[in-house]
Amino acid sequence: MEKSKTLLDALGIEIVEIKKGKVIATMPVNEHTRQPYGYLHGGASVALAETVASIGASAMIDLEKEICFGLEINANHIRSKKDGFVTAIAEVLHHGKSTMVWDIKIKDEEENLISISRCTVAIVSKR
Predict the structure, then answer these.
(1) Coil, strand, or helix at residue 89?
(2) In whole angstroms, what is the distance from residue 109 CA to residue 92 CA?
(3) Which residue pairs from 92-98 have beta carbons closer than 8 angstroms and sit at least 24 positions apart in sequence?
(4) By CB atoms within 10 Å of each CB, which of 4, 17, 58, 82 scores lowest?
C-alpha cells in the first residue's frame, strides 16, 4: 500500500494523541518547515495549528453524515526557532452544531511558547 501524500507527510507532522476535545501533534523544524532565513516558517506553524484543530473537530462529529473544514484561523508568532521539534496542543473552546472554535498552543522542547492560534472549523452535512 502506497503511503498517502498529504501536507502532514510533507511537513513531517505526527499525531501524538487524539481525545475528545483535545489533539496533540509534533512537527520537526527542518528544511521542509523553515523559511529562507533558516527559521520556522509561520505558514508551517499555521498549517500545524489548522491540522490539529481539524483532526480534533473530525473526532467529534459523525463522519458518515458530516464533514468539517477550516473556516478561519489566526496566529501570533511569539518566538523563533531554528531546529528541533515543536508540539501543538489543540483544545476545543466551543462545540456548536455548525462550528467549533479551537485554541492551539505551539511549544518547543523546553515548553517555550512559539505560536498561538485560534481556528474556527465549519461542520457541514455531507450531500
Answers:
(1) strand
(2) 23
(3) 92/21, 92/22, 92/56, 92/57, 92/60, 93/118, 95/21, 95/60, 96/123, 97/123, 98/122, 98/123, 98/124
(4) 4
DSSP assignments along 39-69, one per residue: SB-HHHHHHHHHHHHHHHHHTTS-TTTEEEE
pLDDT digits 0-9 by tens, 67-118: 999 999 999 999 999 999 999 999 999 999 999 999 999 999 999 999 999 9
All cell numbers assigned to 38: 533558516
pLDDT band of residue 1 (cuts 50, 70, 90) is very low
Domain spans of the chain, in order of start: 7-125
Active site positions, annotated: 50
